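Anyone else keep sequences and structure tokens together like this?

Example one:
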Amino acid sequence: MPAQPYPILEIDATIDGTFRTGRFEMRKASVDEAIRTGPLVDNGFSQVLSAISEIVDDVELDGITVNNGAGQRIWDIDFEINTGPNDGQWGYTSDDTVLNAASATGGDRYQKTQVLLNYLEKGQPDSMTPARLIYGGYAPGGIFEADHADVYIEDPGGEVRRDQSSSVPGSLTCVRTLDLSQPVSATERTG
């Protein structure tokens, strides 16, 4: 069994003038993990290819890859947001009586969806301010040295369906990233 069986996403953001860390416990989630590989550039980037062609002959028809065997680690997460506190913490506090733009642990599906999107919008997770994914071996007591993975978020969304009164299906992709706000060691730079 993994150290952390469901994904927990932590996002830092300034909401209504106060710095907060939102914690989103996705207890009803399915996670697909993968390594995203692909070319560094394609033939459409003529300026990049032009610069490279000064160093390497016959680059016009060849793709260019760097470290293609070990690309970006990704987690595709499909989750369900439910009304009430049974989902775990949803925002900066686990107190289910707090309901505002930064926390909705005891809120309904609409409020919880809005709080998550608010953190994603205001926190803008990227390499300078990564979100933290706590899942599987990337957790306290997990098999990896780090107790989380620094990530940025792609394609977040939720579908509020009128015919379902208590849940919102949502999805997002977490992509592992280097935290550039911290000093980077030579080991982290190379692998």
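And example two:
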Amino acid sequence: MTKLFTLLFNPVYCDAPEPWQIGFQDGATPTLEGITELHNSIFFYLVVISIGVAWMLGSVMINFHRRKSPIVYKYMNHGTLIELVWTITPAFILIAIAFPSFKLLYLMDEVISPSMTIKAVGHQWYWSYEYSDFVNEEGESIEFDSYMIPESDLEDGQLRLLDVDNRVVVPVDTHIRFVVTGADVIHDFAIPALGLKIDCCPGRLNQTSVLIQREGVFYGQCSELCGVYHGFMPIAVEAVSLEKYLSWLDSQS
């Protein structure tokens, strides 16, 4: 009975890009939920403004066509009231958009007492990761490289140009700090479903944080033009339960 319930009611998430996709991937973090909510709010204003401008243009073209009103344009003067309206109204709209935008921006920049830190380094053309909070039996931090799986080696269920040989494994419901940099040129660490996008600059450390709220595999790609194989250095983050994460850590020792 439990299996049947799971099959019928277990949600299916979109954590990877789909053909002709124009919307957001399903969010797995508070960050992307905030981005989606802000997008929907701004889109509301966009629809209202678009309808208003289209109505005004259509009204002008219909009512003030030269064949219908051949001389009206000669006696039209500037209207102080209408100019005040179309100047002050956009200002209020921009203020209504600005406050939630700044709030979300500051929240995204905040790194709140991370429980663990992962260092991501962009190379031409692969990623390397370091779990600096954990050490193996030799007393060294856990490090590995992550390359894209060639199309000829893909197995059933793996995604072309997105799956990698070594995924970044992280626990859910944990504050995770990503420290990123570039080894050669500027790369960009971007995972849409997690709301992550941060530049990896050589000689500089940038940081961001994430709190993943559900298990799953989340895919991303380098989002900065970094060379001829820019499109072949994907990112795969696998969020698992704490028990599975501890088991994975044991296997890395």
